[in-house]
Amino acid sequence: MERIFNNYKSRQLRKLRSNQWLAFSLSRGFTNTGDWSSSIREYQRVLEVTPEDIKRVANKYLTKTNRTVAYLVKPEEHVDNAEPQTGGPGL
Question: 22, 30, 54, 85: which one has the fewest Cβ atoms less than 10 Å from its Cβ?
């Protein structure tokens, strides 16, 4: 976690060197919450994340019933007379 937090801190500090990024961050905070300082609180909240928090969220959302699987397959040969297909599984 220490390495992750150090990387996060250094990225955020580099961003703050840019007036454009600073303006974006403050305006995003104001637009989303009505408070320009929310971006500062967001930074602090990220640094309070624990390994237990990550495990809890992963166990809640990364489940077999809450996933999308994609398969890469080789394209079939082009067929000029192919009928268009509509719908999806169960339709």
Answer: 85
**Tokens standing for 20?**
């454009």
**Predicted structure pTM score:** 0.58
Mean pLDDT (whole number) for 39-47:
91
Q: Calculate ∠ Cα 65-1-44, nearest 5°.
A: 95
Which structure tokens are listed for 82?
Answer: 């192919």
Task: Please give the residue range of the domain that contains residue 55.
Answer: 2-64
Q: What percent of the chain has pLDDT over 70?
A: 84
Are 47 and 5 in contact by the 8 Å Cβ rule? The answer is yes
Task: Say if residues 37 and 31 touch (Cβ distance below 8 Å).
Answer: no
Q: Which is nearest to 9 in space by CA: 44, 51, 41?
A: 44
- How many domains does the chain divide into? 1
Q: What is the pLDDT of residue 10?
A: 93
**Cα within 13 Å of Cα(38), Cβ side:** 11
